[in-house]
Amino acid sequence: MKEKLKNSLWMIAEKIIAVFGLIFVTSFVAKYVGPTTFGIISLSLLVFQFLQTVAYMGSDVILLKRLSQNKGSGIQLMLSASVLIFTLYLLLASAGMAIMREEMTSQAQIFIIAAAVACLFSAIDLVNVFNEAMLNAKLNVIANAVGLIVSLSIRFAISWFELDPAWLALPIVLATFIPFVIKLALFRRYEGAMRAPSRKQLKAYSRYMLASGGTLIFSVIAVALYTRLNQFSVSYFLGVKEAGVFSVALTLSGAWVFLPNALLASFYPAFFSERDPKRAIVKIQQLHLLVVGVSAMVIAAVALLAPPFIHYFYGPAYQDAVAPTVWLCLGAMFGLLSSVMDRFIIKYNGYAYLVKKTFFVLLICLVSSAVLVPLYGLTGAAFSVILTELLSFTLLNYFFAAQPMFTIHRSFFSAKKIWFLLNDAKTLR
Q: How far apart are CA 75 and CA 220, in angstroms?
């Protein structure tokens, strides 16, 4: 238990480094290059992160399971999976670059290539999963911290010496390349030289990955699309400059989510081990209150601090990001509550239901963004996120027939029930 707790704390530390690094790095770059160029960078990363997700095929889940069962076999699967992911990503990224380069300027093409290369190293960085499975998440933290420091230093130098913004392509690549190299070197040091899988093993493991990942790929694509769809809508209807501003709002509004997620992760085991259906409902309701309590404090703080923070760190050109940032925090809360409901459905083996639900979420996001973004601009994009996550949290769960889903939420209209949930804290242990 102590080792698991230490590993969890290292994982939280990794998220903190990534989140705060992302905020200050993006603010530094955004203020220097302006909304239009920053919008190009954001859209380029957005496209290739999506392609990376598709090529990844849920490999982290598959590898964690295999590594926990058999370390040697898990390493061979990891090596084979990296070759498969590398091949798939190259095919997808080549098509993506061919399409995007026709519409972009020469400067934009530099950022497109940089984004593609950066996401390549992120995609094949399966040692990251290995370290988490082996309770060595601190190695990931060290590698990511070094990459972040180098990337920040280069960005600072580019701004200090007022170099051509095109040089920012270099730290974009190094931000993923350096951690990848460090993790690989540490893996070789502690695990010895890696023996490449034979052609027969490569085929067998690749077929296994495709078969296992194939069951997840449709859901993965849908999730990857709907979480990025509003950024594409903003770019299409409002322009690249507005996409850069909206990207800032998305970054800031999601920076705090790791905290409630870490708390939820501590309580999920007790929930999943609960055999009494009535007690399980009580526990899931208490997790709802936990999310709402943490989120309420964060949203209040963001509403108060967002205007001066964005003005100081990003500059006056990004002041339009203030209102969407606050609204998107509300959307992030509904997203967390939706994930809690998804765990409840998973407890009762509703995997097929979740796949169907995900596609309806994608459809709602597509329609709402197409309607609200042209009408209300950046705030409309934020409203689209709120509407999508709210329906994902509520209505789209009520058709799961295996459990009384609506009853879970109906109880929150009773002050007496809320008081009971707050006082019955022992059920969360």
A: 24
Where residue 426 falls among pLDDT bands split at 50, 70, 90?
low
pTM of the model: 0.70
**Torsion from C-alpha of 41, 231, 22, 28, nearest 10 degrees:** 50
Cα 69 from chain centroid? 27
pLDDT in tens, 270-296: 777 778 888 888 888 888 888 999 899
Measured CA to CA in angstroms, residue 24 lies from 90, 118, 255, 413 at distances of 30, 19, 11, 41
How many beta carbons lie within 10 A of that of residue 279, not counting itself?
13
Span 326-377, pLDDT tens digits: 999 999 999 999 988 988 887 887 877 887 888 899 899 999 999 999 999 9
Q: Are 86 and 123 in contact (CB under 8 A)?
A: yes
Q: Which amino acid is at 223?
A: V
Task: State residue 47's pLDDT score.
Answer: 83
In order of 31, 288, 302, the CA distances from 296 in angstroms are 29, 12, 10
Nearest to 243 by CA among 16, 102, 45: 45
The residue length of the chain stands at 429
What tokens appear for 121 in the block? 């190293």
Q: Up-side HSE of residue 224: CA atoms within 13 Å toward CB?
A: 19
The three-point CA angle 145-147-151 to 5° equals 115
